[in-house]
What we know:
The chain is an alpha+beta fold. The protein is 49% helix and 12% strand. The chain has helices at 15-27, 49-63, 79-86, 90-98, 115-142; strands spanning 8-10, 36-38, 44-46, 68-70, 76-78, 112-114. The strands form three sheets. The chain has a two-stranded antiparallel sheet. The protein is extended.
Amino acid sequence: MHSTAEDRTLLPEHRAEIAELCAFLDGTPQAVEPALLRGPDGSTKTLPPEVYEALMVVVRALSEGKAVTVAPVNTTLTTQEAADLLGVSRPTFVKILDEGEVPYSRPGRHRRVLLADVLEYKEKRRTRRSRGLDRLIEQTEDTGLYGN
C-alpha cells in the first residue's frame, strides 16, 4: 500500500504486554459505560464505540503475533498491491478487473483500485467459498461419504 502519514503498520514487538492487554480486554464484560482513554498528562477522553472496536481488533491480532496495517478505506492501491492483499498474482487480479469483479480507475497508464472495493471483493469471495464448502459437505453427507 502507498505509505502516507495516515497508513501505519504495527508489529507485535511487546508480546507480553499485548497478551496482558488482550486478556484484560477479553475478560472485561461489555459495559454500559463507554471505555476511556487516559493521556500521558492524566486527562481522559471517552472512546467512541468504533474506536474501541478497532482497538480490540488490533490488540487481538497483535496478541496472535500478526502485524496490523491501519489505513483509511479510501486508500488507492496499485494492481500489484491489491493482488498482494488478496494473495493472488498480478495477472490474476488484472483478470478480476477485466471481468468487472472490482471497479477501477485509470488516472494515467496504470489502473488503480480503492482499498474498500478490494476488501469488499475479498469478503464476497470468502462468503462464496464458505457457501461452496457448505454445499459440498451437504452433498457428501447426502451420499453417505461424509463422517464415515
